[in-house]
Each structure stands twice: as C-alpha cells, then as structure tokens.
Specification:
alpha/beta, Transcription Regulator spoIIAA, 44% helix, 30% strand
Length: 115
C-alpha cells in the first residue's frame, strides 16, 4: 500500500490523501501514522482518494473508522472519493457507507463539504 499526502488544489486548507494497493493488516499498521498526520496538519479536513485501492480487509476498515472518528472529534470533515465498485461494496455491506461520505471526485467532495 502506498500513501501520498498533499494539499488539495481546490482548497489549500484540505489535505488530499491518495491510497493505492491493498489496504490489509500490514498496510493499515504502516499507513495509520500518515493518515493521522494528514488529519492533524489539515486546517479543514481530509479527502481520501480510494481510486487505486484494490482490496480492503477488516483491518483496513478499522483503521479508516479510527481516523474518521478522530476527524469527527476534531470537527474536521472527511470525504472518500473514486472508490472501486468492489471496495465500495464492502463499505455498503458493512453499513459503513453512512459513516463515510463517498463522492465521485475531489471537486464534488470539496463543493459539498467545504463550500
């Protein structure tokens, strides 16, 4: 799993996180600090691009739930974009799609949550 963090080009107060590969137990342990740091460094919230995530395990879901809860406690919205159909289905079947706001792209997420 690879993680890339940068400021959003559409809103510099929002961090943009690109995830790729398999979000399994090993990746969740390795990537949690990067996601937590992105949240802490963000003035307004975080957009997570799931477009290149091929697989997500229960460990990956737990990590995202923990980061999402931390974002809620900090009053910073968190949005997910471009999830592959099979990855999104895991959120839907787990009834987590209500906790995680999913959007088609970064512009839609920024417009909905930060404007």
């Amino acid at each position: 799993m690879a993680v890339e963090v940068r400021a959003s080009e559409l809103n510099p107060d929002v961090k943009f996180v690109q995830l790729s590969g398999r979000l399994d137990m090993e990746a969740a342990e390795a990537d949690t600090p990067a996601l937590q740091q992105a949240l802490q460094q963000s003035a307004a919230g975080v957009v997570i691009d799931m477009g290149a995530v091929e697989f997500i395990s229960s460990s990956g879901l737990r990590m995202l739930i923990a980061v999402c809860q931390a974002a809620q406690e900090a009053g910073k919205p968190m949005a997910f974009i471009r999830a592959q159909p099979l990855v999104y289905k895991i959120f839907k079947v787990s009834a987590l799609d209500a906790m995680f706001p999913f959007f088609d792209d970064e512009a839609q997420a920024i417009q909905t949550l930060w404007q």
